[in-house]
UniProtKB/TrEMBL annotation:
Domain Transposase IS200-like: 7-121
Gene3D superfamilies assigned to the protein according to its UniProt record, in alphabetical order: Transposase IS200-like (3.30.70.1290)
Entry protein name: Transposase IS200 like
Domain of life assignment: Bacteria
UniProt organism field: Paenimyroides marinum
GO biological process: DNA transposition
A Pfam family that the UniProt record links to this protein: Y1_Tnp
GO molecular function: DNA binding; transposase activity
């Protein structure tokens, strides 16, 4: 399988899961540590448009700002997290599936839909209200707290704050509908 390279100026969907479907986060501290390592290793080399950390997988929507040795930086980020998690859990071996998945986004429509998809992950996988899920970037977009997220750019991508919220709610309502065929 040929892996997509990470090129400056392009947006990507980066995702992976635990090897054999195992959990990669056993508690909220693990998720906070993952985000701190993301910031340490990859900011300012990337802009983060969205993220969601589930127990056994994660999603990142990013844009590459500086591709100088970025693959090595990404590798260092994942390795640092895996080593810390393995030490904490008293386990050895691979934590993640072999290679992180990466898909280059070719259109703004796809980017907007992906951001909404990533934010709705808690609803899909945990049957939880995505607006209250702590380890998704959605709530950060709604707050005024300082953030490393590309908040203003993402809000503009949706045509404003109200439309950002509306697009998420409309998609959620669509997913909640049940269809019967007679």
């Amino acid at each position: 399988m040929k892996l997509e390279i990470l090129e400056k100026g392009y947006c990507y969907h980066i995702y992976n899961r635990g090897i054999n479907g195992c959990d990669i986060f056993s508690n909220n501290d693990n998720k906070r540590y993952f985000l701190s390592r993301l910031k340490h290793y990859l900011i300012p080399h990337i802009s983060v448009f969205a993220y969601c950390l589930m127990d056994n997988h994660f999603h990142l929507v990013i844009r590459i700002e500086n591709d100088t040795e970025l693959i090595q930086k990404v590798s260092n980020f994942f390795n640092a997290y895996a080593k810390a998690f393995n030490k904490q859990q008293n386990r050895t071996g691979s934590l993640f599936e072999k290679h992180f998945k990466r898909v280059r986004l070719e259109s703004e429509v796809y980017l907007r839909n992906l951001i909404v998809y990533v934010h709705l992950n808690p609803t899909h996988h945990l049957n939880q209200d995505f607006t209250k899920f702590h380890f998704s970037s959605y709530a950060t977009f709604l707050s005024n707290k300082p953030t490393a997220l590309a908040r203003n750019e993402v809000i503009e991508l949706f045509g404003g704050f109200d439309n950002f919220v509306c697009c998420h709610s409309a998609r959620q309502e669509f997913l909640n509908e049940t269809y019967t065929f007679e």
